[in-house]
Inverse folding.
């Protein structure tokens, strides 16, 4: 793969990203299978997948950009628009909804002065909905970055954001 | 011998810490694997699990050993795969998370035994992308298992080789459907595939593939270690073994408990979950996650067995009970459920892609005060058009279960919105 890094399409990706994507290839039968992992690797480095990055990953995996775009837009955790440093996912499924999830969402938006789907002006946070996070005995729950926050009360919203 | 009654959770600690390899081994861990690979032929392992009567814990309830036996065994040189379905995303369900986070080796041992039984040399854990803690603990546990010779070349010095890869997904409910999961693992959109061929014959990259739920796999080590008779003795009713049952909603102590199959629902809600919170009455419940039919307080004495719950008009599903209290509007609850299903439909087949948003629109109209009484007939029609046999997979039929039962049991709540006497109950 290394000699291909000079290909114009790869200009969007850095060497570390390419190495990490190539390392994942050994786990699967073919290159297409790495597509989701590859998009997640891009996001680890850049938070979201821009058009040039999408094209570059497609090229690296011998996929058409359209095919990879079909994958990227299918999954809830692949972002094709810029997101903040920390994405806040609030659960909007049934148990959290019953126990005040809507109010938690409202308070989060109010506190950060954004609507759902928007990024804060300082680029720190984006608020997105997420389906059941599998912690219904501690509803309502919110995932801040990779960290799950349990038993959220409206008043605890400030605390979970640490500000 | 209290722990023997709760094989799945014997290593689970209240502080949510996880069982290390040493912890796991100290309570008999990897003894089932040792027995399987050193004393039994793969077919004998299949037979043992089949005889035990273990049924899939992901919701469908198919006999696990029987599923394994459907993998063609005529050509042993053919590649086969085992996949652990760790894509837990059924609303209200939080059982696999506990198993993954707090006792990762139990799943890994179950997978190694299952892979041996079907003679697969490559296995995947298909993990939901949001389960970050589970991912790091599993990664670590896989390394530990490898270093102790439970995994890799020559498992426990036998001729059996196995590699297990952790695949973290990127979030979509439909990935829990077996063939959609396989497409997702191949790096494609997670649309379900036509069946037949079934995955056991033609699955991942066209090769025979067994997909088992996490909880199902976690049962395997114990069946091998303690035997069929012991396992069958665990059930209280018709079905065998134990199961993780959960309760969420306005109960006093929401939680998760490992209980014998055949445990009455009343015991789970009233004893384990402590009954309803003060000021709330039980109005109904979904016995096994979002895609199961509502049952009523009159069904509390139904036992958690596959057939018993089916006979009462619902499904045991994932065994995660979602409790509806008297101050939560059932129509709004159904709207929340249908919004979930409409969003998570993969869009592949027309009834599901079009019918679920239509369902949502009708429910929103009704709740918004713009509903007409004919809308209830339209909704009832949708429950048939999106029902079994009319869609490509089970997502839409599952989505119709809470709706059809709500129309049956809570019709007056729907009508109340329509006749103008709206929303006497505000969601709290």
């Amino acid at each position: 793969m290394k000699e291909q890094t000079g290909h114009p399409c790869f200009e969007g990706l850095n060497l570390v990203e390419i190495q990490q994507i190539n390392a994942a290839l050994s786990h699967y039968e073919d290159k297409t299978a790495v597509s989701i992992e590859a998009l997640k690797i891009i996001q680890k480095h850049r938070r979201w997948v821009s058009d040039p990055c999408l094209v570059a990953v497609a090229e690296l995996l011998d996929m058409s950009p359209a095919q990879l775009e079909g994958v990227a837009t299918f999954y809830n955790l692949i972002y094709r628009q810029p997101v903040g440093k920390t994405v806040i996912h609030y659960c909007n499924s049934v148990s959290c909804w019953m126990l005040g999830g809507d109010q938690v969402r409202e308070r989060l938006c109010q506190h950060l002065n954004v609507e759902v789907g928007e990024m804060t002006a300082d680029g720190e946070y984006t608020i997105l909905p997420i389906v059941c996070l599998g912690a219904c005995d501690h509803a309502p729950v919110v995932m801040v970055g990779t960290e799950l926050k349990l038993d959220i009360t409206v008043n605890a919203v400030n605390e979970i954001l640490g500000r | 011998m209290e722990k023997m009654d709760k094989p799945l959770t014997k290593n689970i600690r209240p502080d949510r810490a996880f069982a290390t390899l040493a912890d796991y081994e100290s309570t008999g861990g990897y003894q089932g694997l040792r027995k399987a690979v050193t004393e039994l032929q793969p077919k004998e392992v299949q037979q043992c699990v089949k005889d035990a009567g273990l049924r899939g814990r992901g919701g469908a309830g198919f006999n696990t050993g029987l599923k394994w036996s459907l993998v063609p065994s005529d050509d042993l040189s053919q590649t086969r795969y085992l996949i652990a379905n760790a894509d837990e995303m059924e609303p209200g369900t939080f059982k696999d998370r506990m198993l993954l986070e707090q006792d990762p080796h139990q799943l890994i041992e179950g997978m190694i035994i299952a892979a041996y039984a079907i003679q697969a040399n490559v296995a995947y854990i298909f993990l939901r992308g949001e389960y970050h803690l589970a991912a790091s603990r599993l990664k670590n546990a896989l390394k530990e298992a490898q270093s102790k010779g439970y995994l890799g070349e020559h498992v426990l010095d036998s001729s059996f080789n196995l590699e297990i890869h952790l695949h973290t997904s990127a979030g979509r409910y439909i990935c829990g459907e077996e063939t959609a999961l396989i497409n997702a693992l191949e790096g494609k959109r997670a649309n379900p595939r036509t069946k037949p061929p079934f995955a056991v014959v033609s699955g991942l990259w066209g090769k025979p593939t067994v997909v088992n739920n996490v909880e199902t796999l976690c049962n395997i080590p114990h069946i091998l270690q303690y035997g069929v008779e012991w396992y069958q003795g665990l059930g209280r009713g018709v079905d065998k073994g134990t199961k993780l049952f959960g309760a969420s909603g306005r109960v006093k102590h929401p939680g998760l408990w490992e209980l014998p199959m055949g445990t009455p629902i009343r015991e789970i809600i009233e004893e384990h979950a402590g009954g309803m919170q003060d000021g709330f009455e039980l109005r109904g419940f979904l016995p096994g996650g979002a895609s199961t039919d509502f049952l009523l307080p009159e069904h509390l004495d139904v036992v958690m067995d596959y057939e018993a719950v089916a006979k009462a008009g619902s499904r045991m599903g994932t065994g995660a009970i979602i409790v509806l209290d008297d101050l939560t509007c059932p129509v709004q609850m159904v709207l929340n459920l249908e919004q979930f299903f409409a969003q998570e439909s993969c869009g592949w087949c027309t009834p599901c892609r079009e019918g679920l948003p239509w369902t949502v629109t009708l429910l929103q109209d009704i709740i918004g005060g713009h509903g007409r009484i004919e809308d209830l007939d339209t909704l009832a029609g949708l429950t048939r058009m999106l029902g079994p046999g009319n869609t490509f997979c089970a997502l839409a039929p599952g989505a119709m279960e809470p709706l059809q039962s709500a129309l049956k049991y809570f019709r007056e709540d729907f009508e109340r919105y329509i006749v103008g006497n709206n929303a006497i109950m505000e969601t709290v």
In short: The mean pLDDT of chain B is 95. The first strand of chain B starts at residue 81 and ends at 86. Chain B touches chain A through 55 residues (CB under 8 Å).
